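User: Please run a holo structure prediction.
Assistant: Happy to. Please share the sequence and the ligand.
User: Here you go; the ligand is IPE.
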Amino acid sequence: MKITLEQLKEKPMPQHTAIIMDGNGRWAKSKGLMRAAGHRVGVQALKNTIIALDELGVGYLTVYAFSTENWRRPQEEVNTLMELIAEFIDKEIDYLDEKGVRVNPIGDISALTPKALQSISYAKEKTKNNSHIIFNVALNYGGRQEILRAAKAICEAVQSHELQIDDITEDLFSKYLYTAGQPDPDLVIRSSGELRISNFLLWQVAYSEFWITNTLWPDFKKEDLWQAVWEYQNRDRRYGGVGK
Ligand code: IPE
Ligand code: IPE
Ligand code: MG
């Protein structure tokens, strides 16, 4: 069945879409190329996805670009990824700014290479007043790290009597996460077929709908995104209740 934009627009969009952009390495391997080539084409797929989400009117996008575990990769690949982060931001920042995208890095970005850190910090500052699309880029991000960081900050606030233990609710806890003030992801997309969360947004995905495709990230197209949104729109989100 061919899905049209009109059909998608009839039903509520996922307000927040999160994507685990996986499969760049396998894509390159299948073509006899270096892994770096896969990452490079993957960046183009990201650009196209931002354009497609804008067309749909999705207001929040979170992408997993570099995990706290990705440091385990060969140094050369880590370097390539850092270079591509800076390159993507430097090349696309004016476009993103024009589109009203707010670039919001999430994760411990202090550990990035100086060039990547400089580019992402510049992008964050330049786009800080935009509100059309909130674009969270997870960089040196780990869900457990994020939860620990929040727990520590809350402990400090209790120690200094800014907070009482009874003030600690789910709502308050959420305010200490990188995604403070944002809705939780409605839809989580993972490319390349792995059935795991890989330490991504552990707190926030409590009630997200998952959509996994075997398509490798560099091959991910608008049609894949539309398929994901269509299936999302036709799910029954019961939240533990009995549904419609
Ligand atoms: C995703 O593709 C990109 C990052 C993790 C940065 P991979 O590099 O993980 O690709 P595969 O999983 O090895 O195919
Ligand atoms: C998850 O992909 C991280 C990013 C997409 C940045 P990985 O390829 O690192 O995850 P695993 O190793 O398959 O769990
Ligand atoms: Mg992978």
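Helices lie at 5-10, 24-30, 35-56, 75-98, 114-126, 143-159, 170-175, 222-233.
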